Amino acid sequence: MTTSNRLRIAIQKSGRLSKDSQQLLKSCGIKFNVNEQRLIAHADNMPIDLLRVRDDDIPGLVMDGVVDLGIIGENVLEEEQLERELIGKRAEVIKLRPLDFGACRLSLAVPTEFAYQDAASLEGLRIATSYPNLLRRFMQNKGISYQDCMLKGSVEVAPRAGLADGICDLVSTGATLEANGLYETEVIFRSMACLVQAPGELSPSKQALVDKIMSRVNGVVQARE
Ligand code: ATP
Ligand code: ZN
């Protein structure tokens, strides 16, 4: 029995979105305590369960309806949508609203000594990234061919390690790029965290709860502006 009467919300277990995601839900009046060892945190005062998972798993869980809501970076959401479209798998979500945290950009960056003019400077070269689908879409739109170097981590060290000529990675301040002898040349995707809902209809009681949460999220985010 994988369906539940309790509203399931997936949030990042630990990482850049975890604190803000938990804080937002608490500000909405959802009372819960997180046990670091546990996947699920039950809310005390509402029929809500929080699922604490890797951020990369959240879009799929929402698209497949395993959870009802999710808080996720638009970068990860869009990448998963492109990936699923490629393999003909269901990729819809209902985007409820953008949130006011998790701002970052997915950018191209090259070593300091690289004479970069525009994206065409990367023609035929190898680019390391954890976002192969977003990178492909950008490069295809520009008609530029390149070689893949798929890395889930340590993308920023790939050029120095001789694995790639450039990278396509998330940037917020640019400090990591600089520390690795790279500079940002092109923003290919701007991202914020967002609140998404599984496709299809919710039961009336879950829908009423989502409406209540949404009106509170709107209030909380507005008050912080
Ligand atoms: P997980 O263990 O959950 O897979 P992760 O290492 O993939 O974690 P984090 O580094 O915690 O993920 O980043 C989560 C999200 O935070 C990113 O997908 C992005 O939306 C957002 N983010 C904001 N600023 C940055 C940044 N400077 N670098 C990376 N991600 C950022
Ligand atoms: Zn991740």
From TrEMBL:
Regulation: Feedback inhibited by histidine.
Gene Ontology molecular function, alphabetical: ATP binding; ATP phosphoribosyltransferase activity; magnesium ion binding
Compartment(s): Cytoplasm
Cofactor dependence: Mg(2+)
Catalyzed chemical reaction(s): 1-(5-phospho-beta-D-ribosyl)-ATP + diphosphate = 5-phospho-alpha-D-ribose 1-diphosphate + ATP
Record keywords, A-Z: Amino-acid biosynthesis, ATP-binding, Cytoplasm, Glycosyltransferase, Histidine biosynthesis, Magnesium, Metal-binding, Nucleotide-binding, Transferase
CC annotations in GO: cytoplasm
Catalytic class of the enzyme: transferase
UniProt domain ATP phosphoribosyltransferase catalytic: residue ranges: 54-218
TM regions (residue ranges): none
Primary localization class, coarse: cytoplasm
Swiss-Prot/TrEMBL GO biological process terms: L-histidine biosynthetic process
Pathway where this protein functions: Amino-acid biosynthesis; L-histidine biosynthesis; L-histidine from 5-phospho-alpha-D-ribose 1-diphosphate: step 1/9
E.C. numbers: 2.4.2.17
Family membership noted in the UniProt record: Belongs to the ATP phosphoribosyltransferase family. Long subfamily.
Protein task: Catalyzes the condensation of ATP and 5-phosphoribose 1-diphosphate to form N'-(5'-phosphoribosyl)-ATP (PR-ATP). Has a crucial role in the pathway because the rate of histidine biosynthesis seems to be controlled primarily by regulation of HisG enzymatic activity.
Protein name, as recorded: ATP phosphoribosyltransferase
Taxonomy of the source species: Bacteria, Pseudomonadati, Pseudomonadota, Gammaproteobacteria, Alteromonadales
Gene name for this UniProt entry: hisG
Portion of the full-length sequence here: 1 to 225 of 299
